[in-house]
Amino acid sequence: MGASATFKGDPAGALNMAYEALDFYDVDALLSEEELMVRDMVRDWVDEKVIPNIEQHYLDGTFPREWIQDLGEMGVLGMVIPEEYGCAGMSYTAYGVVCRELERGDSGLRSFASVQGSLSMHPIHKFGTEEQKQKYLPGMATGELIGCFGLTEPDYGSNPGGMITKAEDKGDHYLLNGAKMWITNGTICDLAIVWAKLDGEIRGFIVEMGDEGFTAPEQKGKHSLRASVTSELVFQDCKIPKDRLLPEAKGLSGPFSCLNRARYGIAWGSIGAAQACFDAAKKYSLERIQFDHPIAAYQLIQMKLATMLREITKGQLLAYHLGRKIDEDNWVPEFISLAKMNNVDIALDIARVARDIHGANGVTSEYPIMRHMNNLESVKTYEGTHDIHNLILARHITGIQSFTRNLK
Ligand code: TGC
Ligand code: FAD
Question: Are 169 and 113 in contact (CB under 8 A)?
Answer without folding.
Answer: no
